[in-house]
Amino acid sequence: MIEDANELASAVRKAVETVVVTDVHTHLFPPSHGDLLLWGADEVLTYHYLVAELFTVAPRDLTYEKFWAMPKTAQADLVWEHLFLKRGALSEATRGAITTFNRLGLDVAGRDLDSIRKWFAEQKIDEYLPKVLELANIDYAVMTNGIFSAEQVDFWQRDLPVPECLKTALRIDPLFGDGWERVVGVMAEAGYAVKTEPDDKTFDEVRRFLVDYSARLKPVYFAASFGSQFAYGGDTAFTRLVDRAVVPAAVEAGVPFALMIGGRGGVNPGLRDAGVGVGVADVMALTRMLQRHPEGKFLVTMLSRVNQHELTVLARKFGHLHLFGCWWFCNNPSIIEEMTRQRLELLGTAFTCQHSDARVLDQLIYKWSHSRKIVADVLVDKYTDLFVAGWRPTEDEIARDVRAIFGGSFAEFLDK
Ligand code: RAT
Ligand code: ZN
């Protein structure tokens, strides 16, 4: 038992620093899937979070069209020049690139991008991937596998090797909204009796398609992201699809349905991925889904800070809802701190405090090192309050609780 407050603080910090984390949502791919797996200096520097920042300061004659027509190294050069050399790299995404290069042992203070690039050019991905996972101290990362992406499906059909540290998630966004006609074509071609004007048979066939896919890819969950206009209930096509196909398929496959809610698409399409904004969504829509489907399991993260409190309260009401991560625009120290405090105060350890959303392998390094530091600060406060209240935890109990919010509670949720 720990009897001293200083000893308690160092035990908590050590537990967070050393905990093995599960990264429940990334955009990584197996090395066998070739160029789909992004890594290296130029990918780090052209992360869409950084492209958005570049255009906040870029000269007016740098049009989006000009930028996208450039080779990646030229795009990265522009980001480096405007966001790292001409002004302080104080934003979360810019600091993240610095942390990443630094933790890889590169001389960031020297500001020599060419030598950083040279180092990356010497790395072999099969050795580099495990090295990054070790530096980030991750047991496994969940990928985003677009089952309606022809490029990705082509790789899966070839049965290529997938390292143990990467697990699949079936990404099904095109089923909802504009993608419907195209995906009906894909499913019909694969032998499923689906119609663009959906009837009960179509829903059954979509369910069968998802269950068959699950048997092949063995996903951890099904996932989709939804805009801030997310709506559920009544006699809508989306509601019927969720009720009759998606949730039944997830239940049959024994996996949760993950919903990421709150992007505002098309705010600035010229910026491509970087052009999505944020909007406040209706938590009641999610509430209705949870009420209607007690047999399902739901993993949820929301994008707007405004939604976080209501969402966290909702997670106290339903054991089949598990919250994860501080998503995208919430993945900033001030908001991670606030969200983690709020979730601990309302949920104890029954949530997953963070996911990386890494699109570029190397980003695992900074996303996890930055988050560990913030979560450690919050946990030191919480354990100190508990100590003052008279409780005396052991080191093992602290390690157990830390692991819970970095992946243990997620594993329990999957198993329950
Ligand atoms: O955070 C991001 O990189 C977003 O662009 C999206 O990938 C989002 O996380 C998603 O999975 O839809
Ligand atoms: Zn994502």
Task: Please name the defining characteristics of this protein.
single chain; 416 residues; alpha/beta; TIM Barrel; uronate isomerase, domain 2, chain A; 2 domains; 7-stranded mixed sheet; 17 helices; 52% helix; binds D-arabinaric acid; binds zinc ion
How would you characterize this protein structure?
The structure is a single chain. With 416 residues, this protein is α/β, with parallel strands linked by helices. It folds into two domains: 5-38 and 132-415, Metal-dependent hydrolases (TIM Barrel, Alpha-Beta Barrel); 41-122, uronate isomerase, domain 2, chain A, CATH 1.10.2020.10. Helices cover 52% and strands 9% of the residues. The protein is built from 17 helices and ten strands. It has helices at 5-18, 41-45, 48-57, 64-69, 72-85, 92-103, 113-121, 125-136, 150-157, 180-189, 200-217, 237-253, 283-292, 308-317, 333-347, 363-388, 395-415; strands at residues 21-23, 138-142, 145-146, 166-167, 170-171, 222-227, 257-264, 277-278, 298-302, 321-323. Strands 3, 5, 6, 7, 8, 9 and 10 form a seven-stranded mixed β-sheet that branches. Helix 12 links the parallel strand 6 and strand 7. Helix 8 (125-136) packs parallel to helix 16 (363-388), helix 11 runs parallel beside helix 12 (237-253) and helix 14 packs parallel to helix 15 (333-347). The chain is globular, with a radius of gyration of 22 Å. The mean pLDDT is 98. Zinc ion is lined by residues 25, 27, 357.
